[in-house]
């Protein structure tokens, strides 16, 4: 039986999971593959810490050059994360004609176009299933299973940390800071959670899904990004009254050749499949012309779930090597000559329904003044919840409105005007509402 040799760069949590699967499941993998995947080298700066996985003697090294450019290594796995030195290592491996598997969504969101070009130039594979939604096989689904479909939209919950925080805030009425601290104590959130809670991690992943779905170059800069730090417990209470739940959604739509790509807190009807995804789980909702709507749900992060996706990529590339058929599947689903720069719709031209929460002084004129300004900007109100009961200027009350569909630029212009009124006590809170995903 043919041996296909693997070199691993990065022996942290995910790297240890990959080694565990390769060593413990080697027989079942070889039965499926018709070849033997052999873990030849593991490179890491720290080769003394016990990762809970016993690897054969001679595999661990602190020298990355024992992996990259080593003629005995067929496939390189990059699991160190970040931009550098990951970018340099992946480029060197590709230019050494070693196929690469990575879980590095940040790297691909920023430098994916040039790395895929290098893979093509060298006639080898660059696979990245674990970079989006952990163990959920969404990239394979878009590249292969849905190859006969026109994708209309891809929407998802792509960050387990944010989903955990929003679930707990909604269920328990706790504030953001309290739940974030709990998430950090449980290991669901990093000590510095900025990339997660500000939506950046989700946007990295959406950049890849958008390119896969719509035959565009990867363009992280084109994605509108908002995080979850400004959401208050009261917003969840009002969402329930409207029959909605709040999720941090990644949304990509293609309408008449124009692409929307955005990440932001979103109210979705409680009956929608995505509304039922709670805690640290991820899900991707795909609307395709032939299949229709479908949901892909599971563990979006974690040692074994992510390692499972990495090993799945290893097996796919090994099958290509075994049949002398590298680059059988295009990197971004479409043939390279079909991939063009995306025609992105600016956020100001997005149409949506809106949840708007005003903090206003309790005066009789408040509602009519707000409604008048909204109407002057072509924003129609679908419903209103007003809580009164105060004594003039000293008391503020929330006024909550749900709008009909309106243009983002019209809403922003109206709120700029409303927030200058003497009856408004604090900046207005806005959450977009999506009923058509």
Provide a quick synopsis of the model.
The protein has 437 residues and is of the alpha/beta class. The protein folds into 3 domains: 170 residues, 3-Layer(aba) Sandwich (Rossmann fold); 162 residues, Dihydrodipicolinate Reductase, domain 2 (2-Layer Sandwich); 87 residues, ACT domain (Alpha-Beta Plaits, 2-Layer Sandwich), CATH 3.30.70. Helix content is 34%, strand content 27%.
Highlighted features:
3 domains, Rossmann fold, elongated, 13 helices, 17 strands, Alpha-Beta Plaits, alpha/beta, 437 residues, eleven-stranded mixed beta sheet, Dihydrodipicolinate Reductase, domain 2
Explain this structure.
The protein is of the alpha/beta class and 437 residues long. It has 3 domains: 3-136 and 303-338, NAD(P)-binding Rossmann-like Domain (Rossmann fold, 3-Layer(aba) Sandwich), CATH 3.40.50; 138-299, Dihydrodipicolinate Reductase, domain 2, CATH 3.30.360.10; 347-433, Alpha-Beta Plaits (2-Layer Sandwich). The protein is built from 13 helices and 17 strands. Strand 14 (381-386) and strand 15 (392-403) form a beta hairpin. Helix 1 (13-24) packs across helix 11, helix 6 crosses helix 7 (176-185) and helix 12 (366-376) packs antiparallel against helix 13. The longest helix has 20 residues, at 303-322. The mean pLDDT is 94.
